[in-house]
Amino acid sequence: MSKAGMYIKMAATYVYTICEAQTQTANSPSSFTILSVGGPAMLFYLQPTDEELFKRYNPELQRKSLENRQGRQQDFENFVTKLKEYSKSDRPIWEAAAQDEARTRANSAEEQKKAAAEIQKRRDEIRRQAINGQ
Predict the structure, then answer these.
(1) In angstroms, rounded to a whole number, what is the distance separating the alpha carbons of residues 131 and 114?
(2) What is the pLDDT of residues 81-134, one digit of tens each?
(3) H or E element at residue 116
């Protein structure tokens, strides 16, 4: 739906609500009902679907979106899985997440130290072979 159509519908709803409120008595709940039910209904009607938004993308963005969709879905599934794990503990989720993040950082630092030691060991071995070979 075009923006002009959206604004016309919004204006028509507003005018109808004002006219309805003027014709009813002050204690009548009809204008309140129109606003409380009609407002969300109008938003639901006017809000574009994901497919409509996707069709508005230019072809290059559509291609990139399709390529990255699987990765984003996997990231979301991992996020939800971690949230479920965090919610099983007795502590609040943010504390469990912080503790898990600290544990992950510590494991990563240990792995980096091991990798650096392995690289240094290989370099020393190559140097020894070069010295012995000459």
Answers:
(1) 26
(2) 999 988 888 889 889 889 989 999 998 888 899 999 999 999 999 888 888 876
(3) helix 93-133
Model pTM? 0.45
- Amino acid residing at 124: D
8 Å CB contact between 57 and 65: yes
CB neighbourhood size of 36 (10 A): 11
Name the token pair of 131: 């010295």
Q: Give the DSSP per-residue string, 1-66.
A: --HHHHHHHHHHHHHHHHHHHHHS-TT-SHHHHHHHHHHHHHHHHHSPPHHHHHHHS-HHHHHHHH
In percent, the amount of the chain with pLDDT more than 90 equals 23
* CA 37 from centre of chain: 29
Handedness of CA 22, 27, 32, 34 (dihedral sign): negative
Q: Rounded to 5 degrees, what are φ and ψ at 29?
A: -85, 5
Among 53, 50, 104, CA closest to 78: 104
Q: Is pLDDT above 90 for 31?
A: no
